[in-house]
Amino acid sequence: MRALAAALLVTVAALFQLTQVGRFAAAGGAPSLVLVAVVCLAWLGGARAGLGSALGSGLLLDLGGQGPLGVHALALIPAAWLGTRGARHVGGGRLPAVAAVAALATIAYELVVGGFAETLGHAGLGLPGLLPALAGSCLWNALPAPAGLLLLERLERGLVAA
Amino acid sequence: MRRTRAAGSGSFVTAAALMVVLVLVTQLPALAAPRAAARGTLAPLEALATGAGSLVAGAAAGFTDAGRLRSDNERLAAENGRLRGRLASLQAAGQENDELRRALDFQRGYGQRTLTAQVIGRGPDAFTRSLSIDRGSSSGVRSGMIVVTGFGLVGRVREVAPGWASVQTVGDPTLRVNAYAVGSNLEGTVSGGPGPLEMAVIPRPGVAGDAGAWVLTSGIGGGYPRGIAVGRIIQFQHRDSATAQRAELAWANDLQAVTAVLVLTGFEPR
């Protein structure tokens, strides 16, 4: 039940990312709902949930993009790893910590996506396009992460109660 | 606990290695068709999500005057686009009579052999300047075809599946468009980047591009029909001693606002 809910969540997040987020991306970076969802799922559910959501949602993003498949799935693996590690090592103050993890995960994500575009010569802005928007993207993903974690915790409690 | 942590890290490393292999394998040109077919399977879901998003936006707008303002805004934006396109054509035509003939040739082709498509998806991240459309090979769309709106050039079709195609837009730095500036007739190559479009201009002594001048496709190389608006010059960096000059362009299209496009099915890029 929990796995099904997580799968549904990342699918909806990926579709929303592909169809809606691009329309509202502000100057100085773009939010990634998928990345925030992966960090929060990894934080709450551990390595298995994090890795599963990273691979599933990443492959969906790859299907909606251009070039080879697997780049976004690969780029989301550090987000899952950081989310899992963050949950293990942070005691109190988990809301600021999950925001920091989301920001770190954003850096890793963008380095992987931009690096692959640059190295393999695929469509995309590549690393030179990364730097100007990196701080903005980190902020975009760090800000909703605590709220996302609280929301998922509430959903999880609801699922357990049901 | 230590073993669990090691096992956890191991699964991350294994998954990462598998994804690297997947990236390297699926980038092979031989796998372009199955890759596009796999992407096409997502198109119905993307169309559904796009429709749902529009419904939600419409419903939210219905509670306030935002709906009326939104439709007014869309109407004015469309009108603005039409006028901007017309202005570009008029500027070009005013320069030389020849220009008018070419513009008319393009208009004829533009009017008769186009296919309307709905934008159902956008790039999954901040780096990808791409669009997904709901028409594909079953509608006659082929890889390399030119995609435009009433405002001007959007890009070209990159991958095609039966009911889906992905469009590499002018905002992508790997797409190059041969173009010229109306007025100065300076020629060059336009490419995208993180900021405004950039035009690498072939310098001519004593000639500089004017801010506000339209840049249109030149048709050189046969990749694009001549006369499609690409953008307007924001800034022109001119130095007589330089071997290359650059201009910054405001793209004729707003990637975030494009919801429908035209595929030029009557033009065969070389």
Describe the structure.
The complex is a heterodimer of chains A (162) and B (270). Chain A is 83% helix and 0% strand. By secondary structure, chain A is mainly alpha-helical. Chain A is built from six helices and no strands. With 270 residues, chain B is an alpha+beta fold. Chain B is globular, with a radius of gyration of 22 Å. The interface between A and B is large, with 62 and 54 residues.
Main features:
B: 270 residues, alpha+beta, 6-stranded antiparallel barrel
N-to-C series of helices and strands of chain A: HHHHHH
Strand content of chain B: 25-35%
Apparent shape of chain B: globular
- The tally of helices of chain A reads 6
Main sheet makeup of chain A: none
CA radius of gyration of chain B: 22 Å
The rounded Rg of chain A comes to: 15 Å
Distance between the termini of chain B: 62 Å
| Tally of strands of chain B | 12
The number of helical elements of chain B comes to 5
Number of strands of chain A: 0
Q: Helix content range of the residues of chain B, please?
A: 25-40%
Uncertain ranges of chain B: none
- The general outline of chain A is globular
Layout of SSEs?
The complex is a heterodimer of chains A (162) and B (270).
Chain A: H1 2-24, H2 33-64, H3 71-89, H4 94-120, H5 126-142, H6 145-161
Helix pairs in contact in A: 1-2, 2-3, 2-4, 2-6, 3-4, 4-5, 4-6
Chain B: H1 2-26, H2 32-40, H3 43-62, H4 66-95, H5 97-112, E1 114-122, E2 130-133, E3 146-148, E4 153-161, E5 164-169, E6 177-181, E7 187-191, E8 197-201, E9 214-217, E10 229-237, E11 245-251, E12 260-264
Antiparallel strand pairs in B: 1-2, 1-12, 2-5, 3-4, 3-12, 4-5, 6-7, 6-9, 7-8, 8-11, 9-10, 10-11
Give a quick summary of the entry.
Chain A is an all-alpha fold and 162 residues long. Chain A has helices at 2-24, 33-64, 71-89, 94-120, 126-142, 145-161.
